[in-house]
Automatic annotation (TrEMBL):
Primary enzyme class: transferase
Species name: Streptococcus hyointestinalis
Transmembrane segments: none
Protein known as: DNA-directed RNA polymerase subunit omega
Enzymatic reactions: RNA(n) + a ribonucleoside 5'-triphosphate = RNA(n+1) + diphosphate
HAMAP family from the UniProt entry: RNApol_bact_RpoZ
Gene3D superfamilies tied to this protein: 3.90.940.10
Length: 104
């Protein structure tokens, strides 16, 4: 039985078997956590879906991992700040409604 995608086509996309396994595992975890898929899949399992994405070139190893980590941290910080701002606006609205209710 031949597995699709084949290891040969996958190794054309990544530098080593080790890198392939790490990339596949990370992408499979992302897919299981609810990450948006980059294509339609023929496979059901997330590990095979990750391999399909690697084969098609939609998922690659980032050329500079430190830059990627910094970008992920910046995105998380931005989301945190947006959430804090939203909570602040809600609290202000609640305080204003309480104040308006006491005037009546």
């Amino acid at each position: 039985m031949m597995l699709k995608p084949s290891i040969d086509t996958l190794l054309d996309k990544v530098p080593s078997k080790y890198s392939l396994v790490v990339l596949q595992a990370k992408r499979a975890h992302e897919l299981e956590a609810g990450a948006k898929p980059t294509q339609e899949f023929t496979s059901v399992k997330s590990t095979l879906r990750a391999l399909e994405e690697i084969e098609s070139g939609n998922v690659i190893i980032h050329p500079d991992p430190e830059d990627k980590r910094a970008a992920v941290r910046a995105k998380i910080e931005e989301e945190r700040l947006l959430k804090e701002e939203e909570e602040r606006k809600i609290k202000e609205r609640i305080a204003k409604e309480k104040e308006d209710g006491e005037k009546i």
